[in-house]
Amino acid sequence: MSTQHLIDPSQETEFDGGDLGPHGGGHSRKPQVLIADNSGGALRTTQEFFEDEGVNTIALQSLEAAKLVIFFNIRVLDAIVLDGRLTDDEEPRDRSGYDLALETFNQYEDCPPIIIYSRYDDRPRFDIDWDVIPFVSKDQSRKVLVNTVRERIKRRQLDSQSGGPRSADIPAHLSPPYIILDAPGGDAYRLAAALKRYDIQAHTCPSVSALAEAAPYLPPAMYIIDFGACEREEGMKAIRSLKESRDSFLPAYVVALADDDEFGYDAAQSGADFFKVKESAETDALELILRMSQHAAQLLQTRLVEIRYKQLIRHLRQIRESGAHGMAAPIKTVELTLDGPLLLPEEQLVLTALYTQMLSIGEGEADAGTIELCLEGAEMLANDRGQRSDVHEWVERATQHSPNFTLAWFKEEFLEERYEDDGEEGDN
Amino acid sequence: MMEKKGTTDRARKETFPKVPELFLETTAQFHRLTGPASFRETIEGLMSSAGKVGTSAHVKREFHYVYGGFFKSLIFNVGRLGDLSRARNFADMWSDVEHLMGKRPPGGPKLLSSIGRTLSEQFGKEPVSPKRVLNVLEGLKTRLLGGLKGDFVFDKSSCTVWINPHICQCDLPPGSECRLEEICINLRAEFLASLRTLAGTRCDEGEWLEANLHLLEAAQGKALKKLLGDHPGHVGDTVIFWEAPPGWTILTYDLAFRRLQRSHRSSELKIFILRLPRRASGGKCTIVPAEAAEEIDGVLIDHNSQGARIRAPKASVKRRQRVTIKAREFGRNGTGEKAREGRIVYIDRADPSVFAVRFPSK
Questions:
Q1: Which chain A residues are Cβ-neighbours of B129 within 8 angstroms?
Q2: Would you say A184 and A204 are in contact if contact means Cβ atoms under 8 Å apart?
Q3: CA-to-CA distance for A29 and A12, rounded, in angstroms?
Q4: CA-CA distance, B151 to B130, in Å (whole number)?
Q5: Are residues B275 and A413, on separate chains, in Cβ contact within 8 Å?
Q6: How far is CA A39 from its chain centroid?
Q7: Interatomic CA distance for residues B355 and B188, integer angstroms
Q8: Do β-strands B284-289 and B296-304 pair in parallel, antiparallel, or remain unpaired?
């Protein structure tokens, strides 16, 4: 599964000023609405209704997942729709949806509109300004909910000078957060306290399922799964799901913690980036910080690679259109990219083929077919890092056109001449 | 670019021979992707003129075992250099890598030396980071391991013994299918006879086969399979030889296949051996046998950077004898030298005045 992170901060954010477009003025972007409802069926129906109305949605079933996703995406959300009883519909004392609404509203300046959407009207039990956080009953048509959301988004736009989220405002999360599984039996508190001594505010999540649900919408965090806080199978499943929840541009870093070596094999099998047997809280925290700094550097490098692929395309188009000689600029870009970490096998294959070809051209002039094939390779990289392209077919086709797309690294001088067969069948 | 004029190599001719069914052996697969230009052109030419192109399950297995193992070890050792982002002189870096790879690197020393020399030419004298070298090596590995060709894959070898010689699930019903049974049980006599053919010869597996033939002949059924699984490198050629179907032409660089075909399947298989192009001459040359003062006149039939064929009716030479050959053409062979020293590796049985000299690699 690839990440569904709301908005790529590197992209321009635009709005179309349509019915549900919150910020008018010739921009175009679908509004983003988070919907949290512990009833799976109701959640799906509400989500489909919004999607049909041209709204992008993030649908979550768990309170804890909603908390995490709101925290990391507050500046890109246009509205939040919360079920009042977000933990247990049958429990009259469940006020988790209302609590989250109040907590969110009080915590963030310029908070996006929050709407309580519930089957039970618990308003008399809460001291809330219902004009600020409106209530929509599930007994009403979903159209009422959509209209309320639309009206609130427009009201916010009129009230705000800022005009809503803009790409420059959106946090890039280049310093990835720490998210610790905090369930009974684990050491989340101890570890979070040790991290705090180094000025690091770790986030916690009390269940594996909530972590898995939230992960696709979170920045590329370091997740710390403590095998002491979950069943063995559950821990392995969580690690797998966290690793799969991210795309390869922004991978998650998953650490498995355990009291002894017993879980090392399981952790590795599940795809954990690092397995650690617990030591003192300070030692564990320091080691995690060190690993995280390496991971953060790799993420920055990966962002850079994305930019370089676009640069490579620009260079090659310039050469094609101007008919200029020489490959100095694209060679430099390819070299800088090859100097970076975290390249995928497809990228390594395409970059090596481009590099070999470009070096062979050097200061000379490439034929039009070769330039087109170089551009095709660069475009595969820029689109999806070559992941969904048939890179082997491309390199085979490119080599048929020009052998310099493949480095012939086995040299003639290392071959022995064969005389034993002279004059024999098939070899004269 | 290779020359098309003035060579005696059949592959240099305008058209390639029509091979209706072409079987790519491991070495042919390797050289198609990474060998010298002359080899690549020959292979592509034969493939494009062939009606069918095939390979076998054991070719694929051997390919991944040998070349996958080579790259795995090489990449691991480049990764051990430390501070992978710091650019440095490639020659110094490679010298450290060669040391880490040890005296007997996987795949053999030629693979390591050749890739080192090619990359040295590619990177030049500019400092380069080990990370870039690693990414390029990964790219070359992906190209090599993902580039095997063959629309038809013949299989008389698939068995769990290649993964773990101690585990053969072939007799565990139901549904388990052992393709190696055909060679080890149905064709056992022929298979052992072909191993005997290679035992004691100068081919790579000859020495081991000679020392262990008695064990192979004594083993039956699963015991034989286990022995094969224990020594994939020593029995690989023979297994592949029996996987190639009747009527097909095996394209290979490995002379063992010619030897096997002559002794066992001469009427049903053809062998096409890859070799370097030879430049035709017909000019005069002089032969100077080692430790002899006299110079003997001869004719240079053809030559390349690795050796030469000579006709010298007045010379009396023996195999393995050291000789120096002087010819004007050698000066145009890229070396600039007009005399080349080498050993006699071949004397024509039909016409003993024709012999071949192999020059040592520079």
A1: 339
A2: no
A3: 10
A4: 38
A5: no
A6: 26
A7: 39
A8: antiparallel
**Contact flag A414-B110 (C-beta cutoff 8 Å):** yes
Angle between helices B69-79 and B109-123 (to 10 degrees): 50
Before A220, cis peptide (omega within 30)? Answer: no
Q: State the number of CA atoms in the 13 A half-sphere of A50 facing the CB.
A: 27
Q: Would you list the DSSP string of A114-127?
A: EEEEESS--GGGS-
Q: Provide the pairing of β-strand A32-36 with A56-60.
A: parallel
Q: pLDDT digits over A52-79, tens only?
A: 988 999 999 999 999 999 998 888 899 9
Minimum distance, in Å, between the CA of residue A339 and any CA atom of chain B: 5
Within 8 A of B34 by CB-CB distance, chain A residues are: 406-410
Contact B118 A408 (CB under 8 A): yes
CB proximity list for A324: less than 8 A, separation 6 or greater: A318
Neighbour-count burial of B92, counting CB atoms closer than 10 A to its CB (0-12 exposed, 13-18 middle, 19+ buried): exposed
The Cβ of residue A219 has, within 10 Å, a number of other Cβ atoms equal to 21
- DSSP symbol at B208: H
Q: How many residues does the structure list for chain B?
A: 362
User: Which residue on chain B is closest to A423 by alpha carbon?
Assistant: B348
CB proximity list for B227: less than 8 A, separation 6 or greater? B165, B215, B216, B219
Cα-Cα end-to-end distance for chain A? 57
Calpha distance A425→B261 (Å, rounded): 11
Question: Average per-residue pLDDT in chain B?
Answer: 87
- What does the pLDDT look like over B28-79, one tens digit per residue? 999 999 999 889 999 999 999 899 999 999 999 999 999 999 999 999 999 9
User: Are B146 and A426 inside 8 Å of each other by CB?
Assistant: no
Rounded to the nearest 10 degrees, the angle between the axes of helix A142-159 and helix A40-52 is: 60
Residue of B143, B201, B254 to mutate, testing the A interface (most A Cβ within 10 Å of its Cβ): B143
- Asked whether the beta carbons of A164 and A156 are under 8 A apart, the reply is yes
Q: For residue A358, give both structure tokens.
A: 């470009």
Among candidate residues B299, B139, B147, the one with its CA nearest the CA of residue A357: B139
Q: What is the mean pLDDT of residues A296-317?
A: 88
Cα-Cα-Cα-Cα torsion A181, A36, A48, A244, nearest 10 degrees, comes to -10
Coil, strand or helix at A255: strand
Q: ipTM for the complex?
A: 0.82
The DSSP code for B22 is E
Strands A135-137 and A178-181: unpaired
- State both tokens at A379: 């475009």
**pLDDT value, residue A247:** 61
The answer to whether the CB atoms of B135 and A392 lie below 8 A apart is no
Distance, in Å, from the CA atom of B2 to the CA atom of B14, rounded to the nearest integer, reads 12
Sign of CA dihedral A262, A268, A272, A277: positive
